[in-house]
UniProtKB/TrEMBL annotation, chain A:
Record's GO cellular component terms: cytoplasm
GO annotation terms (biological process): protein neddylation
Keyword set includes Ribonucleoprotein: no
This protein's name: NEDD8-activating enzyme E1 regulatory subunit
THIF-type NAD/FAD binding fold domain residues: 12-126
A single GO molecular function term of this UniProt record: NEDD8 activating enzyme activity
Isomerase found in the keyword field: no
Pfam families (UniProt xref): ThiF
Species per Swiss-Prot/TrEMBL record: Nothobranchius furzeri (Turquoise killifish)
Pathway entry: Protein modification; protein neddylation
Automatic annotation (TrEMBL), chain B:
Residues that bind ATP: 25-30, 49, 57-60, 73, 96-97, 118-123
GO molecular function, one term: ATP binding
Underlying gene: UBA2
Compositional bias ranges of the Acidic residues kind: 578-592, 625-637
UniProt entry tagged with the keyword Zinc: yes
Protein name: SUMO-activating enzyme subunit 2
Length: 454, 637
């Protein structure tokens, strides 16, 4: 086991640096269904098999044609006449031995007729080049089973894709440029007493220049607040004045010049973001107010149970703030001072997570579920990411295709502009409709083929 | 009616099947590109790559499998592609594109050259070859979810070198040797140490305490005197690290005690250094051994755990033993080459760097993090490379249709931007009038000290490293045509260690530097100065100063396309991805920096240079749709 873990780490090194081991775990637990192993379909699956999804199943009732062998890298001329699902599975499987490849030699419509629940088992279903009727039928099945459905089409140099999922919740959204959660504006008790344990004015040079910048900002902020009726520096001018105060705190050498104290430089540099008020992001606030959060039932997913627990925390123990994240950025400091500071945040984060955990427990109890149905580990991860939670919701295909589509007027207004991408959308819809009526694509007459020219 | 072959006009389809194209690089983008080219109908393809296949390539370079590890990328890529598409004719070269065999004549064979490279030096070189041969070049790069494709055509567009690229970050020698303050300093030191012990010894990669550190001396005269002594005989008389290590039989414990005890105790005697800094704490193997606590190793990904000191001691011991026996197997005078994907080499650097971090009271780093800094690792996935390779073919089709004016530089973003575009096309800029490569008479001014700069460092550091020449010939414009450097082996070697002033070069001298292979002549104006910062050998005048790193230092994503991970003469300074190692194929660095998804996501304004027809004229679709997240069209212009 250890050996396989090591070799996986090596093989997947370059992507682990992008989505981390939780991302990889999610990938490895995924079972992806591809309907129709067209060139587009196999290209999509290639990009999922290489990074190591757990399994894939290709559903395809077609036989490999000469055209397939010509435009599909994963079908060769030897496979002409074979079932397309089988032929593509064989070659795609070669890309990664950690992935389990399966195929079903059946059209999706047959499966929908005989066993619609077949599709419930997948993490996601990707349908390529499906006729409108199949999209709508399958869309309905997957929508009610909460399985994400991705529709793809490609004609010449034009492509289209559409994701359908009732709700997709994201705990680790890997935000870019996330602000640190340092609570300088509302220090918790343990942090306050940690700040008190420092006295910059009696320190020797070495300690002074190895005090973490967070402590420096906190110290000077205390002074500022006492001199400004408890109001922190808000605008540029005040922040500049605050920076100047910190600058004056840098030790002087024998000749009266400034010592080189990088930690102070760091403090000055960080003033701007460090003084951002701690608050619940509006995106999370919106989730707090959503129906799924306020109405926890036995059917609620663990995401919503934990979200509700965090909400309870914010309105109670948290006094308006989310649980402390518990991580701090790297900073100039000696190891001991850094570790001490880190521990202050880490311990507070654990306390907060424990409080959230209590709420989770009573929520689960209230809907008759055992408290261990959500693990401590998951609650900790949820708390750590509570500022970045995301929920993606889509409209169903049925709704989009119904005549009273909410943006009907907008679509019509765009039709006048030949540059509008809406034209592509409408043309693709029209092509689908044409196929539905005539069982052939426009421009195809017998075997003669005319489509969009490059 | 237009006659079509597949999705292409017949004339275009015909020209694809007859034209010859060159793919430089058979890695992440190269594999995808070869697939796309054969599927599009290209029949005559040549591919060159000097690399061999590594396990870490397999997550995306789909033409390779486990059984191919260690084989030539170009060769295996060719064989795999032919298996899928036997009708194509592919020629593979397992070689460096800078090899003189690939001269201007070679490049002229092609209708189109496509770069799928991972380093700046090779990109510079192919840029010059394509300018010299006047062949259109498609340049590309990817980093994580981000990517970029652009087109370079002599006289019409900017060349790859029209915009100055930020230099690699280097660190002063005394920071590395005496006073590291950040983990990266320890990692650089550990990589130097690897070369000193097992690899090619380089005088610029000393690892022992630097007695000439100006900060350690009591007065400037003293520094100068000590520096002079160490330059004159110190370095010559001193036994090299490698010779000493060999004399101990690469005994890991002796090495450990020298590096982390004796050398550190020596540093402590330079007490001036530690007046304001926290002094380092020497480590002693025997003492650590006594304190071992045998905790069970934690679960989870091993690479991402930070071990305790003894853990790194053991990693040090194990890796030294493995590496020294590898060295022994190779025989006398053998040298190992450091490679981040070679486990013992990576273990050695992880262990040595962490032990040094510990000595200097820094927080230790996991092997995973050390690897990313030491190896300048850029995250990479198949999806991004597939998109980029697709865009390369689309630009190629425009070029072959004679529609050069419709070519664009295209950025791939992580998330759709404010206009809901994942792919953002921008107009190509015309050549820069100040480019030192593609103007008709390239000229630069270099500030240096003629009394301290040797001919060798003019050749290696300035002409090769900085100005991308492969084999320069240099003539002094002194009326006599003195040859300073000849690319013919042995002709001017005697000049190497002489100073420029020995040849009468002074302020205002002009040096004509030629690279025959690149068909490139650069006139270098010398500006003599005695006021260069320590550890700075020269400065190029008139170029934009290196831009400061992006304001958010902890971004997870690289800001723009990188050169790739093979650029790392110096490791990156960033602990995440390599935001210092940016390569910008585009016009304006700030524009590119702002185009990253982060900036877009937070609503930062972005300057567009898009053309009317590609998108500026299009009505913005995002305002009215804002409430409506299920808008599903992603336009691929």
């Amino acid at each position: 086991m250890a050996a396989t873990k090591d070799s996986k780490e090596q093989k997947y090194d370059r992507q682990l640096r992008l989505w981390g081991d939780h991302g990889q775990e999610a990938l490895e637990n995924a079972h992806v269904c591809l309907i129709n192993a067209t060139a587009t379909g196999t290209e999509i699956l290639k990009n999922l098999v290489l990074p190591g999804i757990g399994a894939f199943t290709i559903v395809d009732g077609h036989i490999v044609s000469g055209e397939d062998a010509g435009n599909n890298f994963f079908l060769s001329s030897d496979s002409i006449g074979k079932n397309r699902a089988q032929a593509a599975t064989e070659l795609l499987q070669e890309l990664n031995s950690d992935v389990s490849g399966n195929f079903v030699e059946e059209s999706p419509d047959k499966l929908l007729d005989n066993d619609p629940e077949f599709f419930h088992r997948f993490t996601i279903v990707i349908g390529v080049q499906l006729p409108e009727s199949t999209c709508l039928r399958l869309g309905m099945v997957l929508w009610s089973a909460s399985v994400p459905f991705l529709i793809c089409k490609a004609y010449g140099l034009i492509g289209y894709m559409r994701l359908m999922v009732q709700e997709h919740t994201v705990i680790e959204s890997h935000p870019d440029n996330a602000l640190e959660d340092l609570r300088l504006d509302r220090p918790f008790d343990e942090f306050k007493s940690h700040i008190k344990s420092y006295n910059l004015s009696i320190m020797d040079k070495k300690d002074h220049s190895h005090t973490p910048w967070v402590i420096i900002v906190a110290k000077y902020l205390e002074r500022w607040l006492s001199e400004h009726d408890g109001q922190p520096p808000k605008n540029y001018k005040e922040k500049e004045a605050f920076r100047q105060i910190i600058r004056e705190g840098i030790l002087k050498n024998e000749n009266g010049g400034l010592e080189d104290e990088e930690n102070f430089e760091e403090a000055i540099k960080n003033v701007n973001t460090a003084l951002n008020p701690t608050k619940v992001p509006t995106s999370v606030e919106d989730l707090f107010n959503s129906e799924q959060c306020n109405n926890i039932t036995a059917q609620s997913s663990s995401f919503w149970v934990m979200l509700r627990a965090v909400k309870e925390f914010v309105y109670n123990e948290g006094s308006g703030s989310l649980p402390v994240r518990g991580s701090i950025p790297d900073m100039i400091a000696d190891s001991q001072k850094f570790i001490n500071l880190q521990n202050v945040y880490r311990e507070k984060a654990m306390q907060d997570a424990a409080a959230v955990s209590k709420h989770v427990e009573s929520l689960l109890q209230s809907v008759g579920k055992p408290p261990e149905s959500i693990s401590e580990k998951d609650i900790k991860l949820f708390c750590k990411n509570s500022s970045f939670l995301r929920v993606v919701r889509c409209r169903s295909l049925a709704e989009e295709y119904s005549v009273d589509s909410i943006n009907k007027d907008e679509i019509t207004s765009r039709m006048d502009s030949p540059d509008s991408e809406m034209v592509f959308y409408l043309m693709l819809r029209a092509v689908d409709r044409f196929y539905q009526l005539h069982s052939r694509y426009p421009g195809f007459r017998k075997s003669l083929r005319i489509s969009g020219a490059f | 009616m237009v006659q079509l072959v597949g999705s292409l006009r017949k004339e275009l389809a015909d020209s694809l099947s007859t034209c010859k194209v060159l793919v430089v690089g058979a890695g992440g983008i190269g594999c995808e590109l070869l697939k796309n080219l054969v599927l599009t109908g290209f029949k005559n393809i040549e591919v060159i790559d000097l690399d061999t296949i590594d396990v870490s390539n397999l997550n995306r370079q789909f033409l390779f499998q486990k059984k191919h590890v260690g084989k030539s990328k170009a060769q295996v890529a060719k064989e795999s592609a032919l298996q899928f598409c036997p009708s194509a004719s592919i020629t593979a070269y397992h070689d460096s594109i800078t090899n003189p065999d690939y001269n201007v004549e070679f490049f002229r064979k092609f209708m189109l050259v496509m770069n799928a490279l991972d380093n700046r030096a090779a990109r510079n070189h192919v840029n010059r070859m394509c300018l010299a041969a006047d062949i259109p070049l498609i340049e590309s790069g990817s980093a994580g979810y981000l990517g970029q494709v652009t087109v370079i055509k002599k006289g019409l567009t900017e060349c790859y070198e029209c915009q100055p690229k930020p230099a690699q970050k280097t660190f002063p020698g005394c920071t590395i040797r005496n006073t590291p303050s950040e983990p990266i300093h320890c990692i650089v030191w550990a990589k130097y140490l690897f070369n000193q012990l097992f690899g090619e010894e380089d005088a610029d990669q000393e690892v022992s305490p630097d007695t000439a550190d100006p900060e350690a001396a009591w007065n400037p005269e003293d520094t100068a005197a000590r520096a002079a002594v160490s330059e004159k005989d110190g370095d010559i008389k001193r036994v090299s690290t490698k010779v000493w290590a060999r004399s101990t039989g690469y005994d890991p414990i002796k090495l450990f005690n020298k590096l982390f005890k004796d050398d550190i105790m020596y540093l402590l005697t330079m007490d001036k250094l530690w007046k304001k800094r926290k002094a380092p704490t020497p480590l002693d193997w025997q003492q650590l051994e006594v304190l071992v606590n045998s905790e069970a190793p934690a679960s989870g990904l091993k690479d991402q755990k930070v071990l305790d000191v003894w853990g790194y001691c053991q990693m040090f011991q194990d890796s030294v033993e493995t590496l020294s026996s590898q060295l022994q197997e190779k025989g006398d005078d053998a040298e190992l080459v450091w490679d981040k994907d070679d486990p013992p080499a990576m273990d050695f650097v992880t262990a040595a760097a962490n032990l040094r971090m510990h000595v200097f009271s820094m927080n230790m780093k996991s092997r995973f993090d050390v690897k990313s800094m030491a190896g300048n690792i850029i995250p990479a996935i198949a999806t991004t490379n597939a998109v980029i390779a697709g865009l390369i073919v689309l630009e190629g089709l425009k070029i072959l249709s004679g529609e050069m004016e419709t070519c664009r530089t295209v950025f791939l973003n992580k998330c759709p931007n404010l206009r809901k575009k994942l792919l953002v096309p921008c107009v190509l800029d015309p050549p820069s009038a100040n480019c030192y490569v593609c103007v008709s008479k390239p000229e630069v001014t270099v500030k240096l000290n003629v009394q301290k700069t040797t001919v060798l460092s003019l050749q290696d550091r300035i002409l090769k490293e900085r100005f991308g020449m492969v084999a320069p010939d240099v003539q002094i414009e002194d009326g006599k045509g003195t040859i300073l450097i000849s690319s013919e082996e042995g002709e001017t070697e005697a000049n190497n260690n002489k100073f420029l002033s020995d040849f009468g070069i002074r302020n205002g001298s002009r040096l004509q530097s030629d690279d025959f292979l690149q068909d490139y002549t650069l006139l270098v104006n010398v500006l003599h100065t005695e006021e260069l910062e320590r550890d700075v050998e020269f400065e190029v005048i008139g170029e934009a100063p290196d831009k400061a790193p992006p304001p958010q230092s902890n971004q997870e994503e690289v800001n723009s396309i990188t050169n790739g991970n093979k650029d790392s003469a110096q490791p990156s300074t960033s602990s995440k991805a390599e935001d210092d190692d940016l390569m910008i194929v585009d016009s304006d660095e700030e524009e590119v920096a702002a185009s990253n998804s982060a900036a877009v996501a937070t609503g930062t304004k972005r300057k567009y240079s898009e053309t009317g027809e590609s998108s500026a004229k299009r009505p913005r679709t995002d305002q009215s749709d804002a409430a409506d997240d299920e808008d599903d069209i992603v336009a691929l212009d």
